[in-house]
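Researcher: Next entry in the queue.
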Amino acid sequence: MTATPPDSGSTGAETADETRDFVKYTFFHLRPEWRRLPLEEREAGKLRFARVLDDPPEGLLVRTYSLTGLKAGTEMMVWSIGTDLPALQEFHARLFGTPLGGYLDTPFSYLGMARRSEYLGDHDHGGEGGQTHRRPFDLPYLFVYPFVKKREWYALSFEERRRVMGEHFRIGHKYPHVQIHTGYSFGIDDMEFILAFETETPAEFLDLVSALRSTEASRYTALETPIFTCVLVPSRRMLDLADGLP
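Model: Structure for this entry, 246 residues:
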């Protein structure tokens, strides 16, 4: 399904003490009880929550997305990127410490780390960027999903895996406006990878996925759901939509 499918390999260029970006996708569900509070109380609560979102700890990048009406059980997603796990924890603790935070559930949460695919060679594709960093393109739509490969994939030789993935690269090149961000999660979260794709329109991603369904590499996919369609919005707009204010 992915434009440049993830793998567990590395170029060997990274070192254990090299600074790398963590990527964190946190999905929030705002409980219905919140919407029954007086409007003035809700406005004050959203203001405090938005202030935390708009003033994260130093070195942390944050983007906010709305899923209201697009996915059951979650209305908001916060994408945070940084090299320091304690800063990520502090940021989320501040969110939960607000009055609105007391009405939030976290139905989905994904953590990954930047790492360059050994199959890329000298090739850069979209949000892969350098070996250790991930940066948003700030396109209107973001599609996020966890990804796990079948164990049979790792029984193949490196040469065979690189050959199979070459087909994916060729198809991905036909959709240059779809930008991929791969987070490597094995060892630090439940899935192997967390994938995100930025696009100008949902149709671009839908067409890419359709083109990839019949590839040889797709036989080795064990999991690529749930899939989240996220719309980039300012923090206050995200909160207002979740609050039922169009």
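Model: Residues 8-13, 125-129 have pLDDT under 50 and may be disordered.
Researcher: Noted, moving on.
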